[in-house]
């Protein structure tokens, strides 16, 4: 019989590991390009950001080793405790946290560096949700279980919103895909989708127009049912009117929230995206610089370290949230498409691996991290390409930052650890 | 597995959207594209070489550069400073300082603007040492043109800022740069200008310069502008300008043996220094809008007038060449009239029917003689069309009727009609020599510019050839255009020139010569007076001359607008110019004084009143 250690190495999904290494490598060379200066060009220099990132990458290997060292069962058994500890770490921020860029999301570590707990909480939430959903008595069609799942997501998302870091909190909406996979009725997604459409149309056309437009639409639906589906109409006309009332209320509340609850900077972000205001100097500066920089890359890009907009630091936060602009400028359409394709295959691979799990726990966890990576990927690149509003969340493995890197590493390698055990039941 | 599909579908969907968006941004769309080396990340700075100097033929400096120092300011970089000291250094008051500072701030906090323009050199020297104390201020050098001798603005021209049309035509120039837009500054722009050096500087998003772009591999060094020596003789030029004060017209002086333009006077003239510095635009507008005296028009080059009697020289030479007259052929001019068909042409030769041969015809300027000769030339050929073409060919060989192709920035073709010209005028083609008989005496359809007349005179002086008149004598380390060193021969045989020149000599020497009272003792001048009829007012005064008769050193054409007749203004001016050039002084100070002080302003004003009356 093979030793347990050998077994784990054998069970590890090396394809995922390879994806991880490739993404980390590509990420680092772009951080190097975005942060290198004329005066400091040596590779190992810990006062620079690319140097620090190299340290984070180096330290992530012992971290991986520790994650792999634990029994797979450990993660399932202690999921609740890990979840509670992570919530405590979020609560603790309000007492001991450090404010960076207006958000109290950081713990100071001996004055040298700081750590952002919300990056790690994602893994804890994924574990907790997996544990909840994998319970044999758990049925997502029931209302109280739906509420339970919602609460697990609500607490961390709420605490993170209070920091305030709404971008990171938004990531928790990704779990709707997980819940859907595990049996949440489809109409939750439909409702979510309709809500999104109503949200955008209300902002774009104003709430009176949207209200009127949707009324016409609903009247048309009622007419349709009246003529062709009399049966269905008889059963559900009250329901349809009820839905319209809810929708109308939603439209009204979107307008109210947008104009009276949102701050001006949030409104500006949406307005710029919807083309309602154009301002390339102050509020639209980031997006304009980012899109211009990407466009300047052309087909093949300007080459490593040759992107003058990258070297001229034209894009703010280029090494963190806007790292993709470096890829686009210096490696062109070919390079940036390759990165998009890499991410797509990486995500598909996670889903593939998740689907082959024999335990529900591992599968739900796999889906969770696929959904989280997917949300980060979509929101980050969508924002950089100017098709989503400015929401500052990192691009996994690319953006500069130790907490983010380690958070994503933990997410991924817990899954790899769980997957390594699939060959034998426990 | 239906439920498995949703996330997979979304992942693929988003991936495709991203790739489409990237394709649109990076390859399809030009909306965001910015040309390389011309974007906000790379700043291009230019290192301007000093513009070449311009000298006259004797090495007198005509155009130099003067340094002007401007204090520039970048408001956002200004740190608290000792305003009192600063104001004292700049010799401005504190209120002035605040005003200027606020004005610069209103314009832009980041873009440099001029704080104080055109400091003197001494102020600059003193300030330079103290400037380090005042962050956000710096001194910018500018080169301006300077004219040590206030003369010949029409020749020298001026430089001005390029406009957008010029930039489109020649991408070398950037907005705000200077270009020669008139005179020698224009024709020799590239020689004088040199080539600017280019430096590419990498900037960050705050427009802060962070070092040379790509370590300066695209940078170039400036190449200095070359100095130019003109053919102009400044003393003669200034003398001509002085003679032309209060008159309108032009003087063109050419050295026959080389085609070098010794003087090119256009009156009224102006001080070239007015076209420099802070007052430039004000002065330029003033000159530009003065459509009446039009000081910006170079009358020596651009004024197209009927040549009048000097053209008889050509008629005589052509007739001799075509063998329709000999020097001894005589006609009789009765009643000062020439009859052709049932019409007559007036003549003012006052020979009262005595026999007139070529020599006398020239010095008495007999219209009848030349009308007769012209008619004979045309009628020598079976059709007027052919005859006209032969005549036209001879006339054009003197450089008339076309651009001279020289190095002057402006010019006019003039007009020498040929057979086709009259075929167009008279479509039935049944025209004869008498239709264009006025051409014989330089009226009719013939038009010339003063420089063409001067060149024609030089050709006669050379007995049959000319060098293209040109303004540049020497360019540093460069060979002169070949076009200027190869003689161009006329279609007239050399032997025909002597009898004509004898006639021209008698214009001065013979007591009855039309310019006998402009005669200068000791100098053998050959010339011809002219009076060009002017339908708009008083006739123009014209004169051509060269001297000495043998081995001529100077050929001149003078044109005075509304100067009554040739010997009234143009003749004396020409003779004085010749005298001045050959001897350095005049033995006829009374004549000189008369010309200096003579004014035609009254005549011009009268004419102006008449024209405005007509317009009303």
Labels describing this entry:
heterodimer; A: 426 residues; mainly alpha; 3 strands; 70% helix; B: 616 residues; alpha+beta; Ribosomal Protein L30, Chain: A; Beta-lactamase; 2 domains; six-stranded mixed sheet
State the share of residues found in helices of chain A, binned by percent: over 70%
Largest interface: A-B, 48 and 37 residues
Gyration radius of chain B, in Å:
33 Å
In angstroms, what separates the terminal alpha carbons of chain B? 97 Å
Give the overall average pLDDT of chain A. 83
Distance between the termini of chain A: 17 Å
What assembly state would you assign to the polypeptide chains in this entry?
heterodimer
Work out the number of β strands of chain A: 3
With strands numbered from the N-terminus, the spatial order across the biggest sheet of chain A is 1-2-3
**Averaged pLDDT of chain B, please?**
84
Alpha-carbon Rg of chain A, integer: 24 Å
Q: Can you give the helix content of chain B as a percent range? A: 25-40%
Stretches of chain A where pLDDT falls below 50 for ≥5 residues?
none
Uncertain residue segments of chain B: none
Which percent band covers the strand fraction of chain B?
Answer: 15-25%
- Helices and strands of chain B: which structural class? alpha+beta
Which strand-content bin applies to the residues of chain A?
A: under 5%
Can you put this structure into words, describing what you see?
The complex is a heterodimer of chains A (426) and B (616). Chain A folds into two domains: 311 residues, no CATH class; 69 residues. The model of chain A has no long low-confidence stretch (mean pLDDT 83). A three-stranded antiparallel β-sheet of chain A has the order 1-2-3, covered by helices on one side. Chain A has 426 residues and is mainly alpha-helical. In chain A, a hairpin with a 3-residue loop joins strand 2 and strand 3. Helix content of chain A is 70%, strand content 3%. In chain A, helix 5 packs parallel to helix 7, helix 10 crosses helix 11 and helix 16 packs antiparallel against helix 17. Chain B is α+β, with helices and mostly antiparallel strands. Chain B has two domains: 81 residues, Ribosomal Protein L30, Chain: A (2-Layer Sandwich), CATH 3.30.1390; 370 residues, Beta-lactamase (3-Layer(aba) Sandwich). Helix content of chain B is 35%, strand content 19%. In chain B, strands 2, 3, 4, 5, 10 and 18 form a six-stranded mixed β-sheet that branches. In chain B, strand 20 and strand 21 form a beta hairpin. In chain B, helix 15 packs across helix 16. Chain B is elongated, with a radius of gyration of 33 Å. The termini of chain B are far apart. The chains are: A mainly alpha (426), B alpha+beta (616). The interface between A and B is large, with 48 and 37 residues.
